[in-house]
Amino acid sequence: MAQTSARFPVVARALTALTLLPLLGGCGMVVLDPAGDVARQQGNLILVSTGLMLLIILPVMALTVFFAWRYRASNKEATYKPDWDHSTQLELVIWAAPLLIIICLGALTWVGTHLLDPYRPLARTAPGQPVAADVKPLEVHVVALDWKWLFIYPEQGIASVNELAVPVNRPIRFRIASSSVMNSFYVPALAGQIYAMPGMETKLHGVFDQTGEFVGFSANYSGAGFSNMRFGVKSLEPAAFDRWVGEARGSGKPLDRATYLKLEQPSEKEPVRRFAQVEPNLFERIVNLCVEPGKMCMHDMMTIDAKGGLGLAGAYNVRDLAYDKFAARGTLPPGDDRYVAAVCTTPMVPVNAPEAKPVDLAPLTGAGLSRARQSVPPARTAMTDPVPPVLPES
User: Fold this and answer.
1) Distance CA 370, CA 357 (A)
2) Is the pLDDT confidence value at 237 over 60?
3) Angle, to 10 degrees, between the axis of helix 37-70 and the axis of helix 88-115?
4) pLDDT per residue over 117-137, tens digit each?
5) Given this model, what pLDDT does residue 157 score?
6) What pLDDT is stored for residue 169 in this prediction?
């Protein structure tokens, strides 16, 4: 019996340690210790906001214990005032302190929301390191597929699946879309998350100021393969990034529209693959839901609608552009397969809207700062020109 009693504290300590082990799963501090300047500023906002709220939480917790002990029934020395109901001084403290903290949190949120706008081009790569005027951001097109990620590098003419490689200390401009349902593009070490949606384009700016390998994933549930919708992120020295680009160009596999339609089909746990060439304007076709041959692009349909529409001749185009949730991508809707493919349109060109003017992010002050606005050019330049009649194609 004595041995059993002696063992009990040891067993209890072991069980306690095993109970605490699951808590170690959340010890990854990448959000508060990232490798990018934007993510680091966002982490600082979390720390400052938490500190401001603790200014109220900690005193309240301490005073709760103090009052429970000070005014317990057995303490005959405590002042007893059963008819007490008001104190002006106490009311001022109770209301003034939270109000001041709320004002500080509101000001901090307003400034951070504007200065860390994901659409705003970066003004620095790290504290005290402004972006040079001749430095061009690396543009990466991101497409959320079921259930994988496609990255297109228009400047380099390559693409990759489930692998994102970028040079360190160079601003990155992401143009993000989705092929089917909504997802959320998130690289915690780089910047905050932003949604990827079909038929729409969102933007995100970020930069790595440290080399290393990180993880990105979808932060929005999108179906059966969501749990494995992760991708590797490599922050490389410029020379190493050039070698990575060279390896991709040597893969010999092109990414054209037919290959994309096959890649778009739902699949899980896709391995990393690279493409040596990318068909021009593929991302624009993905955004405009017209990768399939013969399908009218969404911006063409909007141009036609702006001019009054085409009546029954365009009905099939409208039905085809409504994203088909009940059949596989690339299939035609039932019924008459004759429809208008295009109406006096010019060749598709990438839509590169002008960026907002960069704003210095340090120090974090936003007095008089105007909100970033995205200027979108019209889908076609000849919006007021008459449209010549076009016969339906068979």
Assistant:
1) 10
2) yes
3) 170
4) 999 999 998 888 999 888 999
5) 94
6) 93
Q: What CATH code is assigned to 27-78+85-115?
A: 1.10.287
The reply to whether 27-78+85-115 and 124-287 are identical in fold is no
Contact between 284 and 199 (Cβ < 8 Å): no
CATH of region 124-287, choose from 2.60.40.420, 2.60.40.790, 3.40.50.300, 2.60.120.380: 2.60.40.420
**Number of other residues whose CB lies within 10 A of the CB of residue 334:** 8
Is residue 231 packed enough to be buried (19+ CB in 10 Å), middle (13-18) or exposed (0-12)? buried
- Compute the distance between CA of residue 386 and CA of residue 181 in angstroms, rounded to an integer: 36
Q: Is 3 exposed, middle or buried (0-12, 13-18, 19+ CB in 10 A)?
A: exposed
Domain ranges of the chain: 27-78+85-115, 124-287, 294-351+358-394
8 A C-beta contact, residue 353 and residue 377: yes
Task: Go through 63-78 and write b for each residue having 16 or more CB atoms within 10 A of its CB, e for each that does not.
Answer: eeeeeeeeeeeeeeee
